[in-house]
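[stage:ingest] chain + small molecule (S-adenosylmethionine)
[stage:ingest] validated
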Amino acid sequence: MITWARRDGRARLYQGDSRDLGHVPTGSVGLILTSPPYWVSDSGRRAAERYARRLAVGFGREWRRVLAPDGDLWLVLGDRHDGREWVGFDALITSRLRCSGWRLQSKGIWAETRSRERWDNRINYLLRFRKAGRRVRPTSATLCWMLPLPRTHPESLWDATPDPVLRALILASRKRGPVLDPFCGAGTVGRVALGLGREWIGMERDPRMAKLTARRLGMIRADD
Ligand SMILES: C[S@@+](CC[C@H](N)C(=O)[O-])C[C@H]1O[C@@H](n2cnc3c(N)ncnc32)[C@H](O)[C@@H]1O
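[stage:predict] done
[stage:export] tokens:
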């Protein structure tokens, strides 16, 4: 597997499919923070339900394995109207993850301002899950932002989550253990996590995006 690492050992990046996180030891990750890709090419309820199942079952199994018992899983999920109705991905994903032993602990919103699209098309849910039986003590933190879409790296194919949102989610989560982004794209989560003094592990399937992340985060090839 193609691997990159920082010389100071604080970050590692694997190029591959994150349905298999075989290089990450069981129970070693403090926090998973990620913005999964949106695979639904057709509209309708069925497609949205398939998407939720794919995410929760196909990827969720490895999230569960690598996360520490009291670790946090944060998903940044866009939602939209499919032409007929509001999809409500947050409920679909929550229900699917619930069946495999996750419990929703916090819910926030990042709404994009200055968008030319319908406002309700530009909403992003911030969903925090823990393994069943591991509750989060409530705090007074407000997880709600109205921010413009940040300017992404010119070579990135994807939109990024704004830094203040990522910072707040990391600071609200388990403090020990590396931060994992299994859909790391251009590595925005990695940049913010390292800036907060956290270790970071990324996984990315697209070689162009993996190379970009490696370059942005100052990593060199470190294949096994
Ligand atoms: C929405 S983007 C993430 C954007 C990221 N937050 C950023 O700041 O650039 C999702 C990423 O997941 C990657 N991806 C899709 N399927 C994957 C898989 N099975 N394993 C690993 N990465 C995958 C895509 O190539 C894409 O770069």
